[in-house]
Design goal:
The chain is of the alpha/beta class and 278 residues long. Helix content is 39%, strand content 15%. The strands form two sheets. It has an eight-stranded parallel beta sheet with strand order 3-4-5-6-7-8-9-10. One of its GO terms (molecular function) is oxidoreductase activity, acting on the CH-OH group of donors, NAD or NADP as acceptor.
Length: 278
């Protein structure tokens, strides 16, 4: 199990990815994103997850430069948006993201949503970027098992990561089992179900028992399940709190209780129905 913010999981191509990072979904471009990313890096985070559609890549890049950390110490993820899917358009979108971030390379580049029928062409573009050394690892986001099977059937390089909505109300057991079998690292977005889980009585009880917050219990559950996680916050005290999950361990019984909260319910869209922007 990871013991601090610098601890990593090794992706199937040998690249090391931090277990815990900062997500910046819905964090406003400008001062808000700059300050939240700088606060995270100042407090030991090395992984930052953004996306073209978040509209805040420039602020993330500014924060990275102002943080004073060496580029190679950090792990930066971005994603290609739906309307840019396709081979040439993805290559262009990647350049745009890289320019906005002000970086020479990305650590991880993902297809944001599977969409309808272009993800295989998009994946070929990611394979090219990977072979050209522009990105250290490539993966997907919001892919169900059937999307992954279809992609892998014609891919030259298997995705290294699948970033999906994952939390105690959406445990995605079958998807996780498939990813483990294929050597694809599962990563959680919206690990706290956009705050909707913070009042869940079972979690409140468990949090009291360990003298931790509900958020910390959920993030610890992610880690003990072998899932990389990227909680989002713009408040420095919350960014620090979210990372304070390495000094306790949930019992097997409490892990089961938390997993037992599954309702297959989403805060975001179902990937089979999410086809906007295509």
């Amino acid at each position: 199990m990871p013991t601090n913010l610098k601890d990593t999981t090794t992706l199937h191509n040998g690249v090391k990815m931090p277990w815990l990072g900062l997500g910046v979904f819905k964090v406003k471009e400008g001062e808000e994103v700059v300050e939240s990313v700088k606060a995270a890096i100042r407090n030991g985070y090395i992984s930052i997850d953004t996306a073209a559609v978040y509209g805040n890549e420039e602020g993330v890049g500014q924060a990275i430069r102002e943080s004073g950390n060496a580029r190679e110490e950090l792990f930066v993820t971005s994603k290609v948006w739906n309307s840019d899917q396709g081979y040439e358009t993805t290559l262009k979108a990647f350049e745009t993201s890289l320019n906005k971030l002000g970086l020479d390379y990305l650590d991880l580049y993902l297809i944001h949503w599977p969409g309808k029928d272009k993800y295989k062409d998009t994946w070929k573009a990611l394979e090219k970027l990977y072979k050209d050394g522009r990105v250290r690892a490539i993966g997907v986001s919001n892919f169900h098992v059937h999307h992954l099977e279809d992609l892998i059937s014609s891919a030259e390089i298997k995705p290294m990561v699948n970033q999906v909505e994952y939390h105690p109300h959406l445990t995605q057991k079958d998807l996780q089992a498939f990813c483990v079998k294929e050597g694809i690292q599962l990563e959680a977005w919206s690990p706290l179900k956009q705050g909707k889980l913070l009042e869940e009585p079972v979690l409140v009880d468990i949090a009291h028992k360990y003298n931790k917050s509900v958020a910390q219990v959920i993030l610890r559950w992610d880690l003990q399940n072998g899932v990389v996680t990227i909680p989002k916050s713009i408040k420095e005290h919350r960014i620090i709190e979210n990372a304070d999950v390495f000094d306790f361990e949930l019992s097997a019984e409490d892990m089961e209780k938390i997993s037992g909260l599954n309702q297959d319910s989403r805060a975001g869209s179902n990937p089979d129905e999410m086809t906007t922007g295509f």
